[in-house]
Amino acid sequence: MQFMSRQKKLLPNSHTELYGQCLQFYGQPPLENIALSEFETFAVERLKLLKTVENLGVSYVKLSEQYTKKLDQESKNLNFPYRSGPSEIEKRRKDHISHFILRLAYCQTEDLRRWFIQQEVDLFRYRFSYLSSKQKLEFLHKNNLQYDAISVEEKKALQDKLVNSSYAVSGITVEDQDFYKVPFQDALDLVRTRKVYLKAGYVYIPHQDIVTIILNDFRTRLSKALALTARSLPAVHSDERLQPLLNHLSHAYVGQDYSIQKNVGKISLEQIDSLSGKSFPLCMRQLHQALRENHHLRHGGRMQYGLFLKGIGLSLEQALQFWRSEFIRGKVDADKFDKAYAYSIRHMFGKEGKRTDYTPYSCMKVILSNPPSQGDHHGCPFRHSDPELLKQKLQFYKVSPSGISQVGDITFSLNHPNQYFVESQKVLGGGKDIKREMDTPQRSQENSGRGSAAAREAAAAANASQHLAEMTEELDSFFQDA
Amino acid sequence: MPSSDYDPASLPDLLPLYYRRLFPFSQYYRWLNYGGVQKNYFQNREFSFTLKDDIYVRYQSFTTQNELEKEMQKMNPYKIDIGAIYSHRPNQHNTVKSGTFQALEKELVFDIDMTDYDDVRSCCSAADICCKCWTLMTIAIRILDRALREDFGFQHLLWVYSGRRGVHCWVCDEAARKLSVAARSAVAEYLSLIKGGEETVKKVVLTDPIHPFIRESLAVVERYFPRYALQEQDILGRKESVDKVLSLVPEDILFTVYLWLQSLFLQATAKKGQYFEKEIMLQYCYPRLDVNVSKGVNHLLKSPFSVHPKTGRISVPINLKELDVFDPFAVPTISLICEELDRKKENNTESSGRSLAQKGKMVKTYYYKRTTLAKYVKYFDQFLDAMARSWKGELLRKSDLQKEF
């Protein structure tokens, strides 16, 4: 894709043709000349939109009323299309161009790609939900998704099973609509959540649910496209006007990931018990307690907690000593520890295998990946625990009753367990160093997102630290009483 | 009992005999070569070995069956794991440009481990098993086998006893081997009903409508539940376990439930939408999978016919036709089969060898046939025969395509 070499200028009515459809798969890149200022604005605003998509996705059920209302609002504010209609042409052009610019910025690493694809898929899903049935059908045919419909006889024979497979399918649905037979590999989301009838490797989908298939198709196409884009990156990077902007875009979303260890060695092992009461978020406190009680943690717990400890400043030697001394108290002897577990701790610090220095998990990662099962203590207590049990725990940790009920409703403003730790230490009287750490990400956020987004972030951080201050005060007094 | 004769210290003496005379190399190769339909399939497969003193070596690979035999006889691994088929030969992965060495295909696998049921079994815990809780494995195999075949359309499933406390399933269909990480994880989640770790009391929640998959699974559980939970596990026999059951029941119908529990239930007297009796049965009996084992294309899993160093038992394939009478304690140990071999040798001396030679050709002596291992290898052969029919079809198809050019 070359922005400046094409000399053709497209006439306005070609725009009407190009952008006649309100939704697209982004199959073709834009071919027109684009001013550099537009380039930058479009990209930054789409990034803001995608960040909103991400945050709303964690706080609300996707496509719920609150979710769509807020996303409508944001799309309007940033001048992106969110409805069909002729006035949307300019917005669709912006949508088209900004998507392709962000592809350049987000194709470079696995993590960036994964993030970008996830938000684009969610955005697509939201927009698709606004299409009428007729428009959906048109979209299917235009994009070559041919799946076979089953015969009326087969539908009748399978009627009970079809009705029982999905909350949304009734006897009437089966009679009125076409059902498509789709290979299960093309409908993984429906299979994963068991929302569909599956037989002999095929899922049977009513016309109304074909959206999931489309989303998968979108995801696959985008994934392939990003791989291709990555290969043409060197050519793009040679243009000095673009490179700094693209780098800036891809770093802005990440923010503070606690991968670069600051304060290494400033924490001693003796402090960990008391720190766990004062400054650890609930998930880590739970893990620490389970470790002390059982002298063991399973793999998921070791990863989540081990990386967190690395993030707060434990050195490799300290970590080895910490885990070893605890495991030895349990069923593991020193030899076995050195052979089996020491390797994985060194691996965490990037000293083994492919030498990746793993980053501590963000809240998003803890909540969304690897849910705990029998025997596990990792995960997010606010997501993965029984509400009753969670209430009990918070009571035990002496959080006020109003605080507990608030927890149920809270909009997520905390992003990372290590962020909790740093904020908490700050509140409890940390030094200037810690304050400076917190300022840097704020600044880069402000640069990338102007106006409302930055103000909102600052307000959210203030809320988070106030909330944290309350919680840490309670916890502090609990420890003093004990 | 033969199993009590096994002593882990004798492994260094038994393993050489096992790998020289008993390990079914030709069946093993026949399996992993998959009919030679795809080039370099066997050569690019990763194996990992655990050697004496817990030395662990990864990225082992072999070019021929012969090479595999020689290496295993040289190294005498305590444990063998099978990994993925990579883009290049695993033992040359260091020479490959970073980023291009990738896991491409592997069987879809499942690992059911009895430790994951500790919160619902009263007879044993941790690594122990007994005939009372083994029923859980039977239930797990029946439910998963049905679902993988009827719902997902897979045909070539190999169920293997892990040697100590669980079972593995290897789904060997071509479509299964080619599944992506996302697809594997979707399959595993479709099959999962038990959600929650230490912090969750009620691990199964059913809502309307009840999916056909859950209905089918319940039908299996209901067949086994009365004998298993009420007699073998005796969940109503002690106060703690009664309390546990009751903690899963909504409070307003507690009294009704108590009466219900007194008699063998199965009639749905509960209000529509309340499925607590089904949820309880499922929480006690439904299979617990480790999704992470199934997700990864590059995940290494214990190989069939590998020895379990702690129990000495061979990881044998399970014949589903005899599932209800399968006894994990009757599975041969390495010491048993070595002993059987010695015994037969004493009885036969040279006679069998000579009669074979008289036939005028070099017939390989299949020593495993003289041991309890025989019936398991025979079953493995049948499994391979069924798969071979599909390979034949594939090879024909491929050669047809070539002729067109």
From TrEMBL, chain A:
Reported cofactor(s): [4Fe-4S] cluster
Residue intervals of the DNA primase large subunit C-terminal domain: 274-409
Biological process, per Gene Ontology: DNA replication initiation; DNA replication, synthesis of primer
Record's function text: Regulatory subunit of the DNA primase complex and component of the DNA polymerase alpha complex (also known as the alpha DNA polymerase-primase complex) which play an essential role in the initiation of DNA synthesis. The primase subunit of the polymerase alpha complex initiates DNA synthesis by oligomerising short RNA primers on both leading and lagging strands.
Biased composition (Low complexity): 447-464
GO molecular function: 4 iron, 4 sulfur cluster binding; DNA binding; metal ion binding
A GO cellular-component term linked to this record: alpha DNA polymerase:primase complex
Species per Swiss-Prot/TrEMBL record: Amphiprion ocellaris
Protein's name according to its UniProt entry: DNA primase large subunit
Gene transcribed to yield this protein: PRIM2
Binding residue positions for [4Fe-4S] cluster: C283, C363, C380
Entry keywords, A to Z: 4Fe-4S, DNA replication, DNA-binding, Iron, Iron-sulfur, Metal-binding, Primosome
Keyword set includes Magnesium: no
Automatic annotation (TrEMBL), chain B:
UniProt name for this protein: DNA primase
Enzyme Commission code(s) on record: 2.7.7.-
Enzyme class per UniProt: transferase
Cofactors demanded by this protein: Mg(2+); Mn(2+)
GO biological process: DNA replication initiation; DNA replication, synthesis of primer
Annotated source species: Amphiprion ocellaris (Clown anemonefish)
NCBIfam families for this protein: primase_sml
GO molecular function, one term: DNA-directed RNA polymerase activity
Record's catalysed reaction(s): ssDNA + n NTP = ssDNA/pppN(pN)n-1 hybrid + (n-1) diphosphate
GO CC annotation terms, alphabetical: alpha DNA polymerase:primase complex
Keywords on record: DNA replication, DNA-directed RNA polymerase, Metal-binding, Nucleotidyltransferase, Primosome, Transcription, Transferase, Zinc
Record has Transferase as a keyword: yes
InterPro entries in alphabetical order: DNA_primase_S (IPR002755), DNA_primase_ssu_euk/arc (IPR014052)
Family according to the record: Belongs to the eukaryotic-type primase small subunit family.
